[in-house]
Amino acid sequence: MIRHTSRLFLRMPEERDIDFLTALFSRPELVAHRPDPRPDSSEESARRLARDRAHWRLHGFGRWAIETERRLIGFGGVTVSTEFEGLNLSYHLHPDYWGSGYATELVREALAFARNDLKAKRVVGLVRPINIASRRVLEKCGFDFEREVMLHGAPTHLLSHRMAGVD
């Protein structure tokens, strides 16, 4: 399943994405807000890609590979949450593309997909308290702070977006 926005091309992740994914999650600034801010090993990145591809096979949707101008810039979208009610929104963009509105564009498209295609009633986003930029993106897209939860041993803010007009 392929989707487009005005600047983004969104597609299912493929095996050929492994080198970019490994380089992305080896960047210290990308993993700085984790409880253990250690960059991923190539094996951890391979497992991440395998999980994303398995989610697609099982559910028919998942986190997209995000491209702009025919260049891979990150991964993101909605997945089935096993811990919280609703779909889970997540995204990771290459730092060279931070601050350009790509995250907001992705989140808005993911919400439209969740509402219109999946008929989801609720989408959640999990953000570490220190990650103010990510929280601002979610709030700009209509997410509201719901509560603090513990995730992987660290306090995390759970924000939610309730879909209007979905029965």
TrEMBL record:
One MF term in the entry's GO annotations: acyltransferase activity, transferring groups other than amino-acyl groups
Pfam families in alphabetical order: Acetyltransf_3 (PF13302)
Highest taxon, organism lineage: Bacteria
Keyword annotations: Transferase
Signal sequence bounds: none
SUPFAM superfamilies: Acyl-CoA N-acyltransferases (Nat)
Keyword Transcription found: no
Domain N-acetyltransferase per the UniProt entry, residue ranges: 18-165
Listed name of the protein: GNAT family N-acetyltransferase
